[in-house]
Amino acid sequence: MTERRRLYLLDTNVLMHDPTALFRFAEHDVFLPMIVLEELDRAKKGLSEVSRNVRQASRFIGQLMGEGADLEQGLVLCEPEGLNLQVGTGRLFFQTDQLDHDAVLIADQSVADNKILLAALGLTRRYPDQDVVLVSKDINLRIKAAIHGIQAEDYHNDRALDDLSLLYTGIREVRSDFWTRHLPEHSWTEGGQTFYRIDRVDGDDWYPNQCLRLDGDNGIEAMVREVDSEQVVLELARDFRRSGHDVWGIQARNPEQNFALNLLMDSSIDFVTLLGTAGTGKTLLALAAGLAQTLDDKTYREIIMTRATVSVGDEIGYLPGTEEEKMTPWMGALTDNLEVLTESDGHGGEWGRAATNDLLASRIKIRSLNFMRGRTFLNRYVIIDEAQNITPKQMKTLITRAGPGTKVICLGNVEQIDTPYLTETTSGLTFAIDRFKHWPHAGHVTLKRGERSRLADFASEAL
Fold this sequence. Notes:
Structural class: alpha/beta
CATH topology of the largest domain: Rossmann fold
Largest sheet: 6 strands, mixed
Number of helices: 14
Distance between the termini: 49 Å
Radius of gyration: 26 Å
Oligomer: single chain
């Protein structure tokens, strides 16, 4: 039995969130009521991400209109210029007349959301043989639609995954029979590191730079270096937990942190994502590795740190000063971790610490996300903190700033999203982790164990 053709009525916030939503409904039709067009017109001015999305949606509609368009028959949803999209075969319809309705439950019919709801009611009565579905990011509108018997859905196409539990963790815990199932075909030593070449087994998923952990007498910690259709090359991970093998005075306290340092200190890896709750050491590890490679190894010219300026509470108002001074209140994590890193040595006294702070200030630059367009970073170590508050489009803008010799580190906790309409499965950080897992120059680790303090660990579990 074939599925009935649907008519999707889009709320304004869907197009504000994703202007390509017009083309995402396969063989089904799309309907835009007049109030949605009016709201798009009111929101088109400004420099915000929403305003840019609204203007792009209007341009898409303008391209579809063309000349001599028959609005009664609907506009054919053809592929938009400049985008490689898998466009459906449906049509785009507009509200061209007053839809009949009789909704006594809707008291204020002048509210924009209620006008959209009234349009959905009118469509269900005009086309009883067609499934009318209201698509909105607004849960309250979806609740009101359900009360009136209208089928309502969230916009799902912006999700990187159906469920956060499916997100790539970067670490694979293997069973005790690993060496029996994967007999090493060849092993060798190169540059002081040990490598193993093993055969792939049906049902095993391997990713480049994936971390491998096996406990027990024959336990190992290794990194996947090469993956092909038949074999996998493993490299034993460096141990940054031993004294004398620290990174800028910081030693790994658990296997996850050790894997993270292996990825951060590897110059062949251009993109690293670290996911974890508060206190797992994401920022400290990224900064320690950055300082070691910038000041000691001279691999990078300087460290650039940025983050999304999303408030947890009320806004504090205008901030005076330069770009770096305006960003300073948002960079408490940077100053807190620098305090730990500069005191880890313990030598030199106050004068030595002051000189170290001056040196670090000259090599660590704080930049705002607002001024990233058009920039190119050469030989820089870029840290994007609180990346869970960044949209996929913003994430693309940031990562594409990387020039030759630049390494980008994304840190975040998807359980602490403060940006409106972003969820765990639609965050730019989730997209980056999922889309880069097959790339041989990217790595990811999910940090699980808190190392800040016993108070912070208990609070993160109990509160």
